[in-house]
Specification:
alpha/beta; Rossmann fold; Pantoate--beta-alanine Ligase, Chain: A,domain 2; 6-stranded parallel β-sheet; binds pantoate
């Protein structure tokens, strides 16, 4: 497997299956890489901690950087190359210009503004779209995969590609299911910030999502999620049921729905989500 840093090294990998990451790889990323390995395309994982998607008070400086481990894991999972560009390569006009561009980024469709991550993290999706567009420009993939764990990100990026009207040819975006620890905690690079005693409390997220699925309507599901999270000592940012495509509020289970949560444990902000098909499968919608 090759580790690439310069754009001119990417040419043999044009048309690849791309796995964009910020590094600190865990088995969830490993599953994304392995998922791309049977597509008959070269598999490229990118590692770049993108400064423009972090707000000043967020954890950009202390975001874990574990490049040697990441390269090993990517290789073990079958990647053909890791592309780990410098900030100068991604943002040749400098970081101030990049931040200004991210703040002004034209965001696609309603999924970028339903009052979820966008409300808590102003400019976040501007930075995400900016860097992913730049990575697409550099790597020219045929396929890109994103995890459902960051569900709003997945929706926004899917919409960005659709609305780009072919800027990246016939690029396809694929969604991959969230990978969970044995007890259900969604895998995240930020889980390593959890203190041992917070690890059990963090299970409040997945328990709240399961509890939501037993409720008779989305509004009572939201109440149930909030009380489950609070019972675990989590501070709720949002705990909502939304339309799975637009992420706008819903009143019934009759549309494709997604329950989404963001909550804090001390300084650690955790997110999780789940589709709510269980109700319809049980026939009690
Ligand atoms: O999900 C992530 O790791 C990042 O937001 C992404 C898509 C790699 C862009 O920096």
């Amino acid at each position: 497997m090759q580790v690439l840093h310069a754009p001119e090294q990417l040419q043999p990998y044009f048309g690849c299956a791309l796995v964009p990451t910020m590094g600190a790889l865990h088995d969830g990323h490993g599953a994304l890489i392995r998922r791309m390995c049977d597509r008959g395309l070269p598999v490229v994982a990118t590692i770049f901690v993108n400064p423009t998607q972090f707000a000043p008070r967020e954890d950009f400086a202390k975001y874990p950087r574990t490049i040697a481990h990441d390269v090993e894991l990517a290789e073990a999972c079958g990647a053909d190359a890791v592309f780990a560009p410098t900030a100068e390569t991604v943002y040749p006009l400098g970081l101030d210009a990049a931040r200004a561009e991210a703040a002004a980024w034209l965001l696609p469709t309603v999924a970028s503004q339903p009052g979820l991550e966008d409300a808590s993290r102003p400019n976040h999706f501007g930075g995400v779209c900016q860097v992913v567009a730049r990575l697409f420009d550099l790597t020219r993939p045929a396929l890109a995969v994103f995890g459902e764990k960051d569900f709003q990100q997945l929706r926004v990026l899917t919409d960005m590609v659709r609305e780009s009207r072919g800027r990246w040819g016939s690029l396809m975006v694929e969604a991959a299911p969230t990978v969970r620890e044995h007890d259900g905690l969604a895998m995240s690079s930020r889980n390593r910030y959890l203190l041992p005693e917070q690890r059990d409390q963090a299970l409040g997220l997945v328990r709240a999502l399961h509890a939501a699925a037993t409720e008779t309507d989305p509004h009572s599901a939201e109440t149930m999620m909030r009380s489950t999270l609070e019972a675990h000592g989590l501070t709720v940012d949002y705990a909502v049921v939304r339309h799975a495509a637009t992420l706008l509020p819903v009143d019934t289970w009759e549309t494709p729905t997604r329950a989404l949560i963001a909550a804090h444990l001390g300084n650690v902000r955790l997110i999780d989500n789940m589709s709510m098909p269980i109700r319809r499968e049980l026939g009690n919608s």
